[in-house]
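Structural prep section.
Before we set up the soaks we want a predicted structure of the protein with 6-O-phosphono-beta-D-fructofuranose in place, mainly to decide which crystallisation condition to try first. Input record follows.
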Amino acid sequence: MDDFSFPTQLPAWRALRMHAETLRSLHLRELFEQDERRAERFSGETGGLFLDYSKNRIQLETRSLLVQLAQQSGLEQRRQAMFSGERINNTENRPVLHVALRNRSNTPILVDGRDVMPGVNAVLAQMRSFSGALRSGEWRGYTGKAITDVVNIGIGGSDLGGHMVCTALAPFADGPATHFVSNVDDADIAQTLATVNPETTLFIIASKTFTTRETMVNAHTARDWLVAAAGDDGAVEKHFVAVSTSAEKVQAFGIDTDNMFEFWDWVGGRYSLWSAIGLPIALALGMDRFEQLLDGAHAMDQHFLHTPMEQNLPVILGLIGIWYRNFFGYASHAILPYANDLRLLPMFLQQLDMESNGKRVTRAGEPVDYPTGPVIWGAQGTNGQHAFFQLLHQGMEDISGDFIVAKNSAFDLGEHHRILVANCLAQTEALMRGQTEEEARAALKAEGRSEADIDRLAPHKVFPGNKPSNTIVLDELAPKNLGALIALYEHKVFVQGVIWQINSFDQWGVELGKQLAGVIERELTGEKAAGHDASTQMLIKRLQR
Ligand code: F6P
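Run finished without errors. Recording the tokens verbatim:
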């Protein structure tokens, strides 16, 4: 097919549009009643992850039409193009090779005729040697003490992945304590510095570009704090390392390039936790566990590359998302981990998905006339149940969700885990089934309510149900299957971007605000504010100090 034709012109899109009409009036309850093998037909497993997608408004025909859509969209070719290092990020003229960072088979991946794997392996070796030295106490601070705390200073992709993984795998942590400072709000760094000791703290300045305003300001504040405590800037070399693509900028900041971990412009920020941006993970958990994370992601990459589409989990998740977004008009998708340690996953996936697929033109720059990336949001269960689930069950929005739950707990304290799992399954069932008026009345009657009470309360107790969800079951929350889970979502986002014919790997939309902030920053220091709308002008004046 033409590389840039609209998906809406594809035969499978038209067929799906008609097919959606037949499914619109069918309730999920009916779909389960019609097919006793439904759960088995719509589930799959790979790399320690089990996906049940049977609670979706789909039939076998839906799946096969969606797979046809993927084929007609050129998914196989685009997937091959990504894995083989083609410059699929066309607006930045870059390959997209986070898969090379976890290419555990070590087969060559060529960019402009050069294999990237020796560079990837060299940085992994550098991470192993540095994390080993720091964790063993061989690497010491300016007064000769071992490092007890690591503060990662970075934002967006240079923060969220490492922070999420360190939180998710906290039960495996046996190294220094990790802290993450991202916000330019001085509350963030001030409160973190108040908890650590300059003699025993290592700062990682994590920035692909080494120009991000928030990160640079925080890095300078941290440096000043250390130098003030140490008395001179000789301490910097023992307490600052950098992760970046720019050796010159790292050097200009005052960090020796011997203490720099390189990565490459073919790693997108939100796809970078597999690179040296994952250094806090290696320091907290050890390099062996970091490599297990890579192993899990690599296993998912192989699954994505080689499994037929109908059993290919990232393809299935991506296609189900397309089904709701484009054929049923769902505008948002919730991430609902029933694992407290996965509480940062919704935020991480928010960047991964929304920065990748929040686009309004095709790769060729033509405006699209169909919805693209949905709003991604969520929180850990069971907390979310007591906050926003009311709207999921009885609100007027249609919202799909992913429930993520582990079979085993790292702590296994009495009944906790059983209650957690029961709630997860109960919510997916309740969302799917709902409660009819008849059932609501019967329940009220069983409570001994009067007829008048039943009439009054029954409408409030009706749940429409038919609310779709996926359930992802992990054997346990461990490095390998967390790696697979993250890669599952990365490839899901890729699949959707291919179908929408957008570039999932640039992020021009964040630039305008950055430029304006630079101007307003100067105006807040007293420079005459000009060229703004009346509202912004008034607010600048009010906030000037
Ligand atoms: O502003 C968005 C963004 O460019 C993200 O894509 C990126 O992850 C983040 O800023 C941080 O960028 P850097 O690693 O260059 O500091």
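Observations: The longest strand covers residues 399-406.
Flagged for discussion at group meeting.
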